[in-house]
Amino acid sequence: MAETTLPLESVERAREALLDGVAPLEPERIACAEAAGRVLAQDVSAALDVPPADNSAMDGYALASSDSGGVLTISQRIAAGQAPQPLVPGTCARLFTGSEIPPGADCVAIQENVTLEDGLARIPPTQPGQNVRRRGLDVSVGSRLLAAGTRLGGAALGLLAGQGLETVAVVRRPRVALLLTGDEIVEPGQPLAPGQIYNSNGAMLASLVARFGGELVAQVRVADSFDTTRARLAEAAALADVIVTTGGVSVGEEDHVKPALEQLGQLTLWRLAMRPGKPLALGTIGTTRVVGLPGNPVSSYVGAWLYLRPLLGALMGCTDQLELPRVPAEADFSTRTEGRRHYLRATLAFEGERIVARAYPEQSSAVLTSCAATNAFAVIPPHSDISPGDRVECLWLEA
């Protein structure tokens, strides 16, 4: 019983302990076609100018600006991808969007402003550089194209393709093992006996592991036994960079994760001043990090966002994943807190210049629908009294 009288630790202290000494994993080289969502292991510098030459921003006619304002002969036609010939002085060239500007031309008159008369083009006054995209406008040789730690989305992959790259060095995805404790847990599809529940944490956490960039290498149900728990933890530590457990981190007689972790490795802290999710085990077994989440699905969901997400981000060197976006919003709810910080499940509504946080009506830690129906955590400090219209800080889960 003495453990229950220990002071509660802060969320910030938990994050410090969790991330202390974490360094990015080793790089691997993969095909760019398979790199969506991966994190760059090193800077990528441009070897090519983009565009590689001055080209037309519009369909029209290329000419020397000094020849504009009169009637010109059309001396050549330049399709996109075709090398132009030097422009004959006193003439213009028919060309199209993306076509290379011929030597001797310095502007493009758009076709809507050009009148054709017996094969000649009447060109309105046109300024130097008008409707011309300069060489290197997008990317110049030697510039940093993408920084290490960048998560590769569609635009970033487009930049790599624009350099002609087939492969790219990315950080290896963290290997994650899920250990789901509890004799009462039954897999979906199996009949339920009295006192049993379906394994909702497994599917939920597997999805979040993938969303946060991890590679799920094992998902194991663990019986309520100290010896079994210890054995499964040891096996998981041999194959994973991160072990995530659910349940078994409180002070009940069947809560075995905490003592097993203390015997195998090191436990850093486990009781937090937050709601939901007060019981939390953070520690290590050798070089493997352990995040022991509560068995309650809502507490497990909140803990995964607050702890698992930044841990996987740090292991990938992805600094953007260390913090969730913070959004100030106007509360549409009333609540009062005592000695713990509350993470209310809420939906952010963008209404003109206002951002409104709508709290889910039932905030019980047993109600997983509060997580499925919302996109933010409204963070309520301890000893607060919030009324509708008050400003609250929210963590946005759309990142």
Automatic annotation (TrEMBL):
Pfam families: MoCF_biosynth, MoeA_C, MoeA_N. It comes from the Bacteria. The keyword Protein biosynthesis does not apply. InterPro entries: MoaB/Mog-like_dom_sf (IPR036425), MoaB/Mog_dom (IPR001453), MoCF_biosynth_CS (IPR008284), MoeA-like (IPR038987), MoeA_C_domain_IV (IPR005111), MoeA_C_domain_IV_sf (IPR036688), MoeA_linker/N (IPR005110), MoeA_linker/N_sf (IPR036135). Its EC number is 2.10.1.1. It catalyses: adenylyl-molybdopterin + molybdate = Mo-molybdopterin + AMP + H(+). Keywords: Magnesium, Metal-binding, Molybdenum, Molybdenum cofactor biosynthesis, Transferase. Its cofactor is Mg(2+). PROSITE patterns: MOCF_BIOSYNTHESIS_2 (PS01079). Pathway: Cofactor biosynthesis; molybdopterin biosynthesis. Residues 177-314 form the MoaB/Mog domain. Belongs to the MoeA family. NCBIfam families: Glp_gephyrin, molyb_syn. Catalyzes the insertion of molybdate into adenylated molybdopterin with the concomitant release of AMP. This is Molybdopterin molybdenumtransferase. It comes from Salinicola endophyticus.
